[in-house]
């Protein structure tokens, strides 16, 4: 008896289980130190290490596992704040017994507890038993839960939260996800993938935005309205413009009034559509067209305008006038022969010229400086004089042209009247055009220029006009 | 509960519904051993998915809370394991709240059964942390410094939760059973009790204390984790809160 008690007494501490476990739980850590793996030197279990700890320096260090204590983490979102301890009615773990058998539950809750769920519980309205399944392309509403790596998780009422990738947040890739998509915000999304094995679907905001933007752009194009766009970049062919969030191309030839270089970036320009193709994603705009309408009416033939030379070609210079592109042909520069155009005008220079012809449809103008020369060849000799006297010369030119025109008309009238001597019914004009005015004429009989005074355009160099 | 229930059972369960704890997996993916925990719904309600019996959920959740409360009072080491990508921050937060340890990125093979080797990695992590704290890393040549920083980042990722764990855990809390099969196997080898959320496709025999519930929804998992974390450390906190409230009122 004594021996047995001694053995028992020795055995008890060796068991190592000095604590009571809650009823009903498998006591699997009792006797852990006596398991086959834990024998010998390999003593990485609680018992073994505790022995070591008494010897090792680590006893004084972190090994009190409560040493880093209880960190109170700030509530990051609404539903997190919901769970603050002490506020929840569910918080009933202050050591009370919480394991109830069905009979106990029935006793506690009485009629409300109907035992394990039966089919009747569906109608009792305690909860939502629907589990929606979404298909690709659907538009659904969801609440943003939290930011995950590379995206955001959205609660759409399904088993697993839906994922919104960072790439699908906005058309403009520079936008930050945190700015557009805030926590606990309800937004409308488009489903872009069917559920994976967990039932998690992928969502997109970008696609909805894309559709809306294209719709509004098509409307603008249909109305041929003018809109604004910001220049974001410049390349060899022209400029890249941001139009309602989409990137459009503005060709260099359709950019007017300003030079296409880096200084243009950030400017807002009025634009109109040149080409709009949704399938290819093509979006081409024109600055010139937007200005054309406003400018075209203000100009007419014979106006003296100031323009900037944009480009030199062997056959002439392209001059930018009031937003429109005009051609100053080399033959129209001066009465004298111009050998090298670059000696006369340079790109970037401002020159005065007269509008000779204009084409409203294409927005093109034909220009001339010849007519502004007080004396022939002045453009080559002294450009500045030409420019200074441009208005005066132009006026003179117009007067002269008018006079010439009148004179020609008179002459023509005389001719016709003379011609019409052989005809009947003609009375000072071209009213009767049924018969050929030259019929019955002897062309050599009459001198068409007889009696007409015509002034030469230029006198000789010493004389004045 | 001598006075009787503070809320009706419907009101208590409303929280579970709100959080989506009752959603189960597809019917064709179920595990028949889960029969006692499931509610077999009418085809009119849902043809495809199972729903989970929330009375059982409540019962086992309370059970788990009590168990963890007892364990924490006895100063046991508790380990949270959840390797789903979208739960990384949730696991870390809840574990830190109550002074438990966690594995929120990949569960390295042999983390428990090969604990001795893992400890070597933890020692390496500490060394690198010290180097960084004293700024010595910047004095290395560029390439080496970058290499060491990368190593530090990687080790931190995997081991940050268990670098302070003194010895093998006494309880392990899992989230998704299918995801953590390696962890379960290791715990079984070492005879460590497992608490886990079990869904309609999980095996309740593998775990020691299973809480039937939805293991996919972030909201649902956060709720369960929060309840468990509160059970582990909430005793102190709720008492502190009560003190605060009292002092505020006075």
TrEMBL record, chain A:
Domain S1 motif: 137-206, 224-288, 302-370
Record carries keyword Nucleus: no
Keywords: Ribonucleoprotein, Ribosomal protein
GO molecular function, one term: structural constituent of ribosome
Name of a matching Pfam family: S1
GO CC annotation, single: ribonucleoprotein complex
A biological process term (GO) from this entry: translation
Database matches in InterPro entries: NA-bd_OB-fold, Ribos_protein_bS1-like, Ribosomal_protein_S1-like, S1_domain
Gene3D superfamilies: Nucleic acid-binding proteins
Entry similarity comment: Belongs to the bacterial ribosomal protein bS1 family.
Stated name of the protein: 30s ribosomal protein s1
Lineage: Eukaryota, Sar, Stramenopiles, Ochrophyta, Eustigmatophyceae
Gene label: rps1
Automatic annotation (TrEMBL), chain B:
Recorded coiled-coil stretches: none
Gene Ontology cellular-component annotations: chloroplast; mitochondrial small ribosomal subunit
Localization in the cell: Plastid, Chloroplast
Main subcellular localisation: plastid
InterPro entries for this protein: Ribosomal_uS2, Ribosomal_uS2_bac/mit/plastid, Ribosomal_uS2_CS, Ribosomal_uS2_flav_dom_sf
Keyword Cell division: no
UniProt GO molecular function: structural constituent of ribosome
Domain of life of the native organism: Eukaryota
One biological process term in Gene Ontology: translation
Keyword annotations from UniProtKB, A to Z: Chloroplast, Plastid, Ribonucleoprotein, Ribosomal protein
UniProt keyword annotation of Ribonucleoprotein present: yes
Segment forming the signal sequence: none
Similarity comment text for this entry: Belongs to the universal ribosomal protein uS2 family.
Protein name per Swiss-Prot or TrEMBL: Small ribosomal subunit protein uS2c
């Amino acid at each position: 008896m004594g021996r047995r008690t001694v053995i028992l007494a020795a055995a008890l501490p060796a068991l190592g289980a000095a604590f009571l476990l809650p009823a009903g739980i498998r006591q699997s850590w009792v006797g852990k130190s006596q398991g086959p793996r834990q024998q010998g030197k390999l003593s990485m279990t609680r018992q073994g290490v505790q022995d070591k700890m008494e010897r090792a320096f680590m006893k004084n260090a972190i090994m009190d596992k409560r040493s880093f204590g209880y960190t109170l983490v700030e509530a990051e979102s609404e539903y997190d704040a919901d769970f603050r301890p002490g506020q929840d009615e569910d918080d009933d773990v202050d050591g009370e017994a919480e394991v109830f058998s069905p009979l106990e539950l029935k006793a506690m809750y009485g009629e409300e507890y109907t035992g394990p769920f039966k089919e009747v519980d569906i109608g009792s309205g305690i909860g939502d038993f629907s589990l929606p399944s979404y298909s690709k392309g659907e538009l659904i509403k969801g609440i943003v839960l939290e930011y995950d790596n590379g995206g955001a998780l959205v609660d759409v009422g399904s088993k697993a939260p839906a994922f919104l990738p960072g790439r699908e947040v906005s058309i403009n890739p520079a936008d930050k996800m945190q700015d557009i998509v805030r926590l606990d915000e309800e937004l409308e999304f488009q489903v872009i993938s069917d559920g994976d094995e967990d039932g998690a679907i992928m969502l997109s905001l970008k696609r909805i935005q894309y559709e809306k933007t294209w719709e509004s752009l098509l409307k603008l194009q249909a109305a041929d309205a003018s809109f604004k766009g910001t220049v974001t970049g410049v390349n060899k062919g022209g400029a890249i413009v941001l139009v309602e969030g989409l990137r459009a191309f503005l060709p260099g030839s359709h950019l007017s009034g300003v030079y296409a270089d880096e200084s243009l970036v950030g400017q807002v320009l009025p634009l109109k559509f040149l080409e709009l193709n949704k399938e290819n994603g093509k979006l081409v705009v024109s600055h010139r067209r937007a200005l054309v309408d406003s400018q075209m009416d203000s100009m007419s033939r014979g106006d003296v305008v100031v323009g900037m030379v944009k480009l030199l070609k062997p056959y002439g210079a392209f001059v930018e006038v009031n937003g429109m592109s005009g051609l100053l042909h080399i033959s129209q520069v001066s009465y004298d022969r111009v050998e090298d155009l670059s000696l006369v005008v340079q790109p970037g220079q401002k020159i005065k010229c007269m509008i000779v012809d204009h084409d409203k449809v294409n927005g093109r103008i034909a220009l001339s400086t010849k007519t502004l020369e007080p004396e022939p060849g002045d453009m080559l000799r002294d450009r500045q004089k030409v420019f200074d006297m441009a208005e005066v010369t132009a006026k003179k030119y117009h007067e002269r042209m008018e006079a010439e025109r009148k004179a020609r008309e008179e002459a023509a009238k005389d001719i016709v009247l003379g011609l019409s001597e052989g005809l009947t019914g003609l009375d000072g004009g071209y009213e009767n055009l049924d018969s050929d005015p030259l019929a019955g004429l002897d062309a050599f009989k009459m001198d068409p220029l007889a009696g007409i005074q015509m002034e030469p355009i230029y006198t000789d160099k010493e004389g004045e006009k | 509960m001598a006075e009787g229930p503070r809320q009706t059972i419907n009101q208590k369960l409303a929280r579970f519904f709100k959080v989506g704890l009752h959603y189960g997996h597809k019917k064709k993916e179920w595990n028949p051993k889960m029969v006692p925990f499931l509610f077999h719904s009418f085809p009119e309600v849902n043809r495809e998915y199972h729903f989970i019996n929330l009375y059982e959920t409540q019962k086992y959740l309370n059970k788990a809370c009590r168990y963890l409360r007892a364990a924490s009072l006895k100063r046991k080491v508790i380990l949270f394991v959840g390797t789903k990508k979208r739960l990384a921050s949730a696991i870390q937060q809840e574990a830190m709240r109550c002074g438990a340890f966690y594995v929120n990125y990949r569960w390295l093979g042999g983390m428990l059964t090969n604990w001795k080797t893992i400890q070597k990695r933890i020692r390496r992590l500490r060394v690198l942390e010290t180097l960084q704290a004293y700024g010595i890393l910047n004095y290395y040549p560029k390439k080496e410094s970058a290499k060491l920083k990368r190593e530090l980042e990687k080790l931190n990722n995997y081991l940050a939760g268990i670098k302070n764990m003194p010895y093998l855990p006494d309880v392990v809390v899992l989230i998704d059973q299918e995801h953590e099969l390696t962890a379960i196997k290791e715990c079984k080898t070492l005879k460590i009790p497992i608490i886990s959320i079990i869904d309609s496709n999980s095996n309740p025999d593998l775990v020691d204390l299973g809480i039937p519930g939805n293991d996919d929804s972030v909201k649902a998992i956060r709720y369960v984790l929060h309840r468990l974390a509160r059970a582990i450390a909430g005793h102190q906190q709720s008492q502190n809160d009560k003190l605060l409230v009292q002092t505020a009122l006075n």
